[in-house]
Amino acid sequence: MKALHIITGLGVGGAExxxxxxxxxxxxxxxVVTLTNPGPVADGLAADGxxxxxxGMAGNRDLAALPRLARIVRRGRYDLVHTHLYxxxxxxxxxxxxxxxxxxxxxxxxxGDSQMEGRPLTAGxxxxxxxxxxxxxxxxxxxxxxxGRLARWGVPEPRIAVVPNGIDVTxxxxxxxxxxxxxxxxxxxxDAFVIGGVGxxxxxxxxxxxxxxxxxxxxxxxxxxxxxxPEEPALRRAARAAGVAERVLFAGESPYLPDGPPSPDxxxxxxxxxxxxxxSPPDSAPDADxxxxxYGxxxxxxxxxxxxADGSRVPDLSADGPSGPGLPALASAMDVLAAxxxxxxxxxxxxxxxxxxxxxxYTSCPALEDLPPEAAPDAVRVxxxxxxxxxxxxxxxxxxxxxxxxxxxxxxxxxxxxxARLMDVYAAALARPVPPPRSPQGVSPS
Length: 446
Hints:
By secondary structure, the protein is of the alpha/beta class. It has helices at residues 14-23, 40-47, 65-76, 86-98, 123-133, 144-153, 176-186, 207-214, 232-242, 327-333, 348-355, 366-369, 386-399, 408-412, 415-431; strands spanning 2-7, 29-34, 52-54, 80-84, 104-108, 115-116, 119-120, 138-141, 160-162, 193-198, 221-226, 248-252, 336-339, 360-362, 379-381. The strands form three sheets. The chain has a seven-stranded parallel sheet, with helices on both faces. A six-stranded parallel sheet has the order 12-11-10-13-14-15, sandwiched between helices. It is globular. The two termini are 37 Å apart.
């Protein structure tokens, strides 16, 4: 089987890293097209030997990208097209149909009750989604919670399959040596109580709640934020206003997968991610959708300083290169993970933290809500409120460190299990005709 994965971008994010991890475990010849932003995950895919093509799409309304994408699909002679994220699902499904590929699967990574990938769920967003969905054979939900949302939207239930996100449990196993090295690397005292926050720095993740909670906690408590995004300047200002700037450390984006063997040469003699004809690979390919033309991954080049211009802490990443320690090492350096986002589709950061043996305090995590409580006994739900998080985190600190072993919930979401389920979806999409779509008329969004 030969499959093409189409994704909106390949900056460091949950959906993007999940795609890379899946491709390592799928017994399928796979290639990837990114509509925009061939960021660090594109580099990682290329290092794994996956051919990556950058479509060079200029924005959501760049309709000229559609025939280019259809030509790529047609020339590739793919058996199946798999799309990821809203824009890629819309354009990818249409392009696949234009190219004559009928086996089209789409994964819904980020559908919440009121937003999708940070955009409000307006009537127009829903209408376009349902229009595109009719062109595919199956929509994959990353949790039963998302499957329910899709059904309430009007996606026919026979066209929905649940394939949870997966993790490499062994890669996240707690490593005391990595904990000591990473804390030294980041300038964190060995006896500091480190609260971790992992995810895109966007308003919906509500990391501002953790900054305000930190102000109510003792001075040995440090907040380690792992991720990049447009909310970083506002979070730095919030830390300064709360008087905790020196206790908030912004670690930037950290892919958790190491690079694989060097990518073999591509048939045309090039190697690594492919860019539009006539373009040279930039040092950091911009995302045309952001006002400054950047997508803000990692930390600035050059030596770091002990404190940022606003007083917040900036780690010295020189020892490990510009990307710094990987996510498993950072998880080993933490004492607890806090996830105040009130709306999630899965909760990948929570599951990864559990695999690292961390206690977790979270507001929304369908991955855990779909399992019995005993599957993750040290994962406790907390309201999205600074005072509630301050109290919950103080209790974890007072309890002292416990055994850093992964609970059953982490093992349940093994990437090998997710890959096997996805192969079943592929087999069904290739074998069966398209069920007639139900009309979305009269169906109210939830």
